[in-house]
Amino acid sequence: MHTNIYQGMEKELRVIISGGGTGGHIFPAVSIANAIKALRPDAKILFVGALGRMEMQRVPAAGYEIKGLPIRGFLRPLWKPGNIGVAFDYLKSKWLAKKILKQFRPQVAVGVGGYASSAALGAANSLGIPTLLQEQNSYAGLANKTLARKAAKICVAYEGMERFFPAEKLMLTGNPVRQALLETTITREDAVRSLGFDPSKKTILLVGGSLGARTVNESVLQHLDLIKGSDIQFIWQTGKYYHESIKQQLAGQEIPNLKVTDFITDMGAAYKAADLVISRAGASSISEFCLIGKPVILVPSPNVAEDHQTKNALALVNKGAALYVKDAEAPATLLPLAIETVQDDDKLKSLSENVLKLALPDSANIIANEVIKLAQ
Fold it and tell me: Is a pLDDT exceeding 50 seen at residue 118?
């Protein structure tokens, strides 16, 4: 057992938050930082991320300083020669992380999953700094599973997580979500009008995460005639990656009930406008649907570790709180199912009521309080 080499050195609160790679790790991390700041305005917070990953832009945009490590994921299969370089970068990252921690002198380190957190929290453990983990998914990620043994507290969003973590360290807090979604005051009517649509008609929102989801996009492209022939309005976030090619495929087609955009900045208004959402099954998105009580059809991405999105989706489906379409079946069945569902008011009502029951509100505050307790 290490003693904390910084114990009692200073009164002000100093916190390291590490992790990232996807929005699903970054939104909770920033929400926790904001909640710590609200409780302790004097707090000094430093993020540690992976160079070249999304957090290096998103965290400074949220108003926090971030240091980058040259860490990256192992190539599959593990015997690939490129992994020698990956292992070298990991050792270098751990050494750099230790240096950052010694300079910053935090009383506590928070890990939200992702490559960087394994190096930063590993370094914190070796320096005797207490650590708190936040696991977003119903199937624990590798970084958090590895760090769990030395963590003081593990905050989770799903029941049954003692499969992965020591039960006595677990705390069911839910996932912190983007505050703006909960604080939006726009009415459904105004939200629909702001998109140039008719509030008296049903509206479906299709999102595939910030980069887009090829399967969701394929599902739309294969059913343009069905969309044209329906009285339903569609908001389609293609993702930046696919936007140009989709624009070319739609060139010259008049589809007034289909609004196509690469990225939606005001997600609060988009969710408000939608009677039904089609989405991937990332943990952050699911937490948002629970908190705002939004009927949703989930299309889990098959390209994630341990197929954890399917496990996330089934946690809702088994409670009648969401519908689910397999990625491979989506191009054929997703759009017809969505059009049928959005016209069934009883179905929408029961999905909304059931998903609301699964909401764990105030997650960021609960976690922030635990972080402050650990620091003391």
Answer: yes
